[in-house]
Structure formats: C-alpha cells, structure tokens
Amino acid sequence: MGRPDRPLDPADRSPRLGGLEPARRRGHGRRPDPPEPIAVLHDWHAWWAGTQDGRLSTLVDYPDVLRAWHRALWQAHLTTDFAQPEHDLTPYPVVVVHRLYALTDAAVDNLLGYVRQGGTLVCGFQSGVADEDDRVRPGGMDARLRELFGIRTLHEWWPLEAGETVPCEGFHGSLWSEELGADGTADETVRYKGGELDGLPAILRKGRAWYLSTLPEPEALRDLLARITSGAGVRPVLDGLPEQVEAVRRGELLFVLNHGREPVTVEVPGTHHDLLTGEALTDRVTLGRYGVAVLRP
Fold first, then answer.
1. With pLDDT > 90 as the criterion, what percentage of the chain qualifies?
2. Burial class of residue 66, CB neighbours in 10 A (0-12, 13-18, 19+)
3. Is 236 helix (H, G, I), strand (E, B) or coil?
4. Three-class DSSP category at 104
5. Cα 7 off chain centre by
6. Which residues, at least 6 apart from 128, have a Cβ–Cβ distance to it below 8 Å?
7. Per-residue pLDDT tens for 52-79?
C-alpha cells in the first residue's frame, strides 16, 4: 500500500490506524494472505548492471522506470507484489518486467515456463540484454525472449534525448525506442508513427507475452496495463474507485485509503464494520483528508 510517488509519512498515518491494533489482538486479519494478482519483478543485479559506465543511456534510470510502471499500475487501482525473476511466478496471473537489463539463464527459463503455463507477461525495453556477468547477449536481447515476443531481429537501439518523445499509434513514447524486425508470429502490433521508425513495431503481443520497446506516456501506460490485466482476469479490488483512493484486501479485511487532500465517498457494496471507528457501514464509506477505513464484513 502507499502511493508510489509519495509514501505516506508514518507520523501522519499512525493516528488514523490507531484503532487497528486492538482489532489484531482480537484475532482479525491474522490469516496468511494470498499473493497480489500482479508481480512486478525486481532484481538488484539487473539494477547494478544497468548503471555501469558505458551504459546505453544515462537517462534510462532503473528506479525511475520501475516507478513509472508501478505508478501506472497504482493509478489503475491494481495491487502488486514484488518478486525476484527466478522465484516461482505461477501464483500470479500477470507478471511485469519493467526493465531488467541483466537476466540469468535460469530467470529467462522461468519467464518462458511461466508463459507456457498460461501466465501473462508484460516486458519493457532493455530486458534480457546481458547475462549476470554483464556480457551482452548476441543480438542485443536473449534469443529465447525474442522468439517469445515475436521479434526476429533487434536491429538497433534508439535512445531518446531528454524531453524527446516518439509518436506511436495512439500515444507517444519516451526515454527509449528500438528498430525491431518482427518475425510475423505476433498476434497484435502497435507501430511507430512517423520519423525514422515509421511503421516498425513499438509494441508486440504474441499470445500472452507483450513487449514494449518504448515507455508510453503515463496515461497510455496505465490504460494499456489496465487492458492487459483485465484480459488476464485481474481487476481492481473495488470497481469505480476515485482517483487517489487505494483499496487493498488483507485476509478478510478491506483497507480503503484516501491519498488525496479532499474528502471522498467510496462505493463499497454490502455491509461492513469499520474497525477504526466502530461504525457499521452500508454500501459506501466516506474518507476525510488522507483518511483510512479498515472494513470487515
């Protein structure tokens, strides 16, 4: 929980959660929680490899790209876990690889197996470029990943300048672009529109595997991820959530957090008991500035 761009200050948050500890002592919320439906992959070695001298672009920063992807998911009201690329990913309907420059053979095999078993994989640019020793793989991307995404050849990387964007069908990309040659097996292609890369693939989908060769602008990335996750059967915890409101389930408890400065009313179907205020609520809850409700059916 928590906004990706402005974590809640514990001192600001604690008075509002003060009523939760007695509820825990009464036994609420102690059941082990299932994983969130989406795993965002994170790897310290990939972070390290992507920051070495001579890297492909000084503007492509691991934390910034990770934050952009996580923010898009958060703004789509989708809850996520972080996972390591070699761990068991089968519990997750959707796995997001924001930018993992270095991937071990075991990690690549794990991603391939995940898709073969029916998982939906969304992968950003500069992933699988090198191995764990920072040796660049032939062709600029692991050959197994190229086949997975329907890429015949990665001809050339096209880093973008600060503030530069590249037009694509339906959105503009930033930070990065690539001259890709598709192998004809993709089920869906979104193309670059205009400029040197006109008509070439910007986004490819082959089965349940997606590849993004640029970073779409924030609203476009949010909408694309919402579409992909919905197709995989993943939806927000509550429908129709207002902006700045987050809803997360932990066992039988539903946490509803207002990250905004203005009061907001959230539709929560059914009857619930707010463990913080002791109130019984039906079909909706009103949250004040940075307000929190912890609801039990």
1. 82
2. buried
3. coil
4. coil
5. 17
6. 100, 103, 108, 137, 141, 142, 145
7. 877 788 899 999 999 999 999 999 999 9
